[in-house]
Design brief:
With about 180 residues, the chain is of the alpha+beta class. The protein has a domain of about 110 residues. It contains 2 helices and 9 strands. A hairpin with a 6-residue loop joins strand 8 and strand 9.
């Protein structure tokens, strides 16, 4: 009898025991939770499937265009006794034979600059040097830091109009604009 009552007690106690753990399910925002909507998917089960969660695509960020700054506007004309043309102060020059600008002062070395006097821009690469020491162009009377901007003469024809005076044979280059970035449409 004692065995039967112990067996009965053991049987009833095992039926009334509950689990000692709790399942907590994350909730999506539309149900008051913190997870993004459509981010939870239940996969599997008998005869049932699930669609993968839909992850919202990030909004595209607008492309930031570089700010374009005018570096200089220069006019070059013939100087007596010179084969090249210079600005009025004779500190900036344009070598006609090679379509090279020689500009007083240092721009950023190895940066591209965009130059025109007719609306079509050409890309020139800057080479900063010290006049009469390590510049590819030298002229006595010029000293200090200079920037050499060079491209081929055939490329320069597309963006620069060198004007020749038919009576005197002198050449000039007017309203040359130099920018640090290209035009953006």
């Amino acid at each position: 009898m004692i065995k039967l009552s112990l067996l009965t007690i053991a049987l009833f106690s095992s039926i009334s025991i509950q689990a000692a753990y709790v399942i907590k399910m994350p909730l999506e925002q539309k149900l008051g939770g913190h997870m993004q909507d459509n981010s939870i998917a239940f996969v599997g089960g008998i005869g049932s499937g699930s669609t993968p969660p839909v992850t919202p695509e990030p909004e595209p960020k607008p492309e930031v265009k570089p700010e374009r700054k005018l570096v200089a506007t220069l006019n070059f004309s013939t100087v007596s006794g010179e084969t090249n043309i210079f600005t009025a102060d004779q500190q900036n020059g344009f070598v006609l034979q090679t379509s090279t600008f020689v500009l007083k002062g240092a721009l950023k070395h190895d940066q591209n600059y965009y130059i025109t006097n007719n609306g079509n821009e050409c890309k020139y690469n800057a080479d900063v040097c010290t006049m009469n020491m390590n510049c590819v162009y030298s002229k006595s009377g010029l000293t200090g830091a200079y920037t050499i901007l060079s491209i081929s003469p055939s490329q320069a024809k597309a963006c620069l109009n060198v004007v020749t005076n038919h009576f005197t044979g002198t050449k000039s280059l007017s309203n040359v604009t130099i920018y640090d970035n290209p035009k953006t449409e």
